[in-house]
Amino acid sequence: MESKRKFRLGQVVSDKMDKTVVVAVETPKRHPLYKKTMKRAVKYKAHDEKNQCRVGDKVIIVETRPLSREKRWRVAEIVAKAEMVEISPEEITREDLAKITPGKKAREKEAPEVKAEEATEEAATEEKPAKKAKEKEKVTETKAKEKAKDKVAEAKADQKPKEKGKAAKAKPPAKTETEAEDQPA
Length: 185
Hints:
The protein contains four helices and five strands, in the order βββββαααα. By secondary structure, the chain is an alpha+beta fold.
């Protein structure tokens, strides 16, 4: 009797859970309009009973009954193990550590002579940003002053036509009683 269960070939992405691995399965899919073949990656959580799978392993997963909320697959077999490069502690240098963990952790382990050199370098680099910051402040101050001058000039220009317009729109002087009597209503 042939098995009707689905199976997928994928790569282990995560093995941090107990008896569970996350497997990424890439399938080619053709775009309906542009006809370009694209890779579509789907992640499945699969049951790994003996915790044998490691990140990077190629595995075949098989559909199974629901084992948990998201687990509906189990690892059938490990097709190819990922290559793990093993380095002895003697072979690791400080430069390698700095590449792996950049930051204060690698610096704390260094010799005091190196720290002194870095301190002088840091002091020199701190002066440069301070100068740059002062220059930026000056530039922003001059820009602000220019904008203020422009606004003042615009305000003055706006006020002058208004004053002329006010004179033109001014009400005519009140008519005297004699003028009012002369004109018919």
